[in-house]
Design a protein that fits this description.
The complex is a heterodimer. Chain A is an alpha+beta fold. In chain A, 26% of the residues lie in helices and 30% in strands. In chain A, strands 1, 6, 7, 8, 9 and 10 form a 6-stranded antiparallel beta sheet that branches. Chain A has a 5-stranded antiparallel beta sheet with strand order 11-2-3-12-13, covered by helices on one side. Classes of the chains: A alpha+beta, B alpha+beta. The interface between A and B is large, with 53 and 35 residues.
Chain lengths: 232, 271
């Protein structure tokens, strides 16, 4: 098994301290979701948030993309990295979870979904460029969030941020996050954090989409680009 | 006209050694670090108008959100630049130094008697500067837009009619052209088609500004390195050079297809 070098060096090696213009080594013509994604669990569910910019190089191919994808009734995925890879992965996951729920007669847990996603990314790590956040609600654990970065590690987290824009907001989230937030506090923090990341990351922008997942349902909302809590 | 000012690497510092001489011979073109994106320009009824946003990016990071990329060179000339910000600052310094030297060495200290460089002269001079650097494989990494008023290009006609509006581009390898609509960077792909469609020589100031704002809005929608905070600058006979304070342009995000989320179970899985 080859050692997987997780280096993310841009083709140009200068400006090593600058956020590189092309952080994901994309094949020519490939779209990237250079992105900001985030998820915070609260008591009774999860809030997931993302920006809406899909870029090819410096061109914004889609300015209102939807990067939060549903894979089951109460399980959603935030996608970052190559749009093609993450779309394919979520399609597979949706298929597997659908089968599983029929076979077992009950909704799959978020943990199962996360582990399945992790298997797919890990076993194919050489061919994929996908960083995802799996979040949702289930009857066993309530709201939970799992971060799966590029190589296919699986980390259950009290909150998760990802994508190229996340580097700009680690400080903000470290400062503002506390355990046991309510749904409204969590949603406000997600919106504020994503807005701050969009203000500084050239590869993130547009609108902020959020999904609030609880036992009772999934509530999708968005904040238009001219009403952001901060920036652009 | 220009003093022997050195824009070479290291300038006039004396840390030249034999080794550096060797390296200089094989020195490769640098890459830009802090960069500005598009600059747009159009001729209109009263003169020429330029637009640029106030963002300088550090790679993909939106680092400096109040960078000024349009500057006044003299009462007849405006300069805008995309590309490496430090090179733009060096060019501005160079031009200002030249202007000062002209003023100090002129025959008369009275303003009326001094013949300032017109826009076309500045454009031509910059062509020489950029081409010279390109030949040394060490370019100033900018696309420059020169706007202003110029004496007509015809030679030896002392009674030539009054100054005409001028708008021209100089790129990093010394290519030059002039036109009624000019754009650099992403603007050349996204804004030029709009400008060519909508431009007329007799645009009023308000119309010209609205046209430029529309183009800047499209650029903000579609260029990763653009910002919605812009400056507009104009050169007119009556008022000389005026550069506005930065202001935000409005954007629209409420189309039905935007609002509708695509990531649901029944949907296509998002994009």
């Amino acid at each position: 098994m080859s050692a997987h070098a997780m280096s993310m060096h841009a083709p140009r090696s200068h400006a090593a301290s600058a956020a590189s213009a092309d952080p994901y080594n994309l094949k020519p013509g490939e779209h990237s979701t250079g992105t900001t994604i985030m998820a915070i669990p609260f008591d009774g569910g999860v809030v997931m948030g993302a920006d809406s910019r899909t870029s090819t190089g410096t061109y914004i191919a889609v300015r209102v993309a939807d990067k939060i994808t549903q894979v089951h009734d109460r399980i959603w995925i935030c996608r970052s990295g190559s749009a093609a890879d993450t779309q394919a992965l979520t399609d597979y996951l949706r298929h597997y979870l659908g089968q599983l729920s029929v076979e077992t007669g009950r909704a799959p847990t978020v943990k199962t979904a996360a582990h399945l996603m992790r298997r797919m990314i890990y076993e194919n790590k050489d061919n994929l460029m996908a960083g995802v956040i799996v979040g949702g609600w289930d009857a066993v654990d309530g709201g939970s969030v799992y971060n799966i970065p590029l190589g296919g590690s699986l980390v259950k987290m009290p909150f998760a941020i990802g994508g190229s824009g996340s580097t700009y907001v680690y400080g903000l989230v470290d400062h503002k996050f506390k355990e046991g937030m309510s749904k409204d506090e969590a949603k406000a923090l997600v919106e504020k954090t994503v807005a701050h990341a969009m203000a500084r990351d050239g590869s993130s922008g547009g609108i902020i989409r959020t999904v609030v997942i609880t036992e009772d349902g999934c509530d999708k909302q968005f904040i238009p680009g001219d009403q952001l809590p901060f920036g652009p | 006209m220009s003093a022997p000012i050195s824009l070479a690497p290291g300038g006039s510092s004396s840390r030249i050694s034999a080794r550096a001489g060797l390296e200089a011979a094989t020195e490769r073109t640098r890459q830009p670090i802090v960069t500005g994106t598009s600059v747009l320009g159009i001729k209109y009824k009263d003169g020429v108008m330029l637009a640029a946003d106030t963002l300088c990016s550090y790679g993909s990071m939106a680092k400096y959100k109040d960078a000024r990329r349009l500057t006044k060179i003299n009462d007849a000339t405006l300069l805008g630049a995309g590309g490496e910000y430090s090179d733009f600052q060096a060019i501005t310094d160079l031009l200002k130094r030249n202007a000062l030297e002209d003023k100090c060495t002129a025959d008369s200290l009275y303003e009326e008697d001094v013949n300032e460089e017109c826009a076309r002269e500045v454009w031509n001079y910059l062509r020489a500067v950029m081409y010279n650097r390109r030949n040394k494989m060490n370019p100033l990494w900018n696309d420059l837009v020169v706007a202003g008023f110029s004496q007509p290009a015809g030679v030896g006609d002392a009674s030539a009619d009054e100054d005409k509006p001028f708008l021209g581009l100089v790129d990093k390898i010394g290519t030059t052209y002039e036109d009624s609509v000019i754009a650099t960077g992403f603007g050349s792909y996204l804004a030029i088609p709009i400008l060519r469609e909508k431009h007329r020589e007799d645009l009023e100031e308000g119309e010209a500004r609205a046209l430029l704002e529309d183009c800047m809005r499209v650029l903000f929608y579609r260029d990763c390195r653009a910002l919605n905070r812009i400056q507009i600058a104009k050169v007119t006979k009556a008022d000389g050079v005026l550069i506005s304070e930065p202001y935000e342009i409005e954007t629209s995000w409420d189309s039905a297809s935007f609002v509708e989320p695509k990531g649901q179970l029944e949907g296509d899985g998002g994009w």
